[in-house]
Write a structure and sequence with these properties.
Layout lengths: L3 H12 L4 H8 L3 H8 L8 H10 L4 H13 L10 H6 L1 H13 L3 H18 L3
Helix pairs in contact: 1-5, 2-3, 4-5
C-alpha cells in the first residue's frame, strides 16, 4: 500500500469540512476503520462503499475516477473497481486492451483513441 488513496480521501474530507467521525458515520463504518484507511493502514473499501464515499464527499466525476484509480493502485495488479464489469461485458474492449498490451501501445496512441471516442460521443449527441 502506498497510502495515496487515504491521503486523497483525507484531503477531500477536510476540503468540505467533514470530520473523520462524520464521514465514518455517513459510510456506516467504525471511525477507527476510517482512520486506518486515511493513514494507509487498510486497503480501500469495496466498490459499493467507494461509491458511497464519493457521494458523501461530493466528488466530481473526475475526482471519483481519481479515487477509483488510487484505490486500485493500493493493490497489486488491480483494476479500478468501476471498470471490471464494463470490461468483462464488452468483448471488443477486452480485445482492444490485449492488442494494446501486446503491441506496447503508447500514451500518444491512447490519447488519439480517447479523442476519437470523445468525437464519436459528440456526434451521437448531435454536436
Amino acid at each position: 500500500m502506498n497510502g495515496k488513496f487515504g491521503e486523497f480521501i483525507k484531503e477531500k474530507r477536510s476540503a468540505i469540512g467533514k470530520t473523520l467521525r462524520g464521514l465514518a458515520a455517513d459510510l456506516d463504518i467504525a471511525p477507527a476503520f476510517m482512520s486506518d484507511i486515511e493513514k494507509g493502514h487498510r486497503y480501500p473499501p469495496s466498490k459499493e462503499k467507494l461509491y458511497e464515499m464519493a457521494r458523501a464527499l461530493h466528488l466530481s466525476d473526475e475526482d471519483t475516477n481519481t479515487m477509483f484509480d488510487l484505490a486500485a493502485q493500493e493493490r497489486e495488479n488491480a483494476v479500478s473497481p468501476d471498470l471490471p464489469e464494463y470490461i468483462m461485458n464488452h468483448e471488443n474492449v477486452r480485445v482492444a486492451l490485449r492488442i494494446a498490451r501486446d503491441k506496447g501501445t503508447s500514451n500518444a496512441a491512447w490519447q488519439r483513441v480517447i479523442e476519437l471516442l470523445e468525437q464519436e460521443e459528440g456526434n451521437a449527441n448531435g454536436e
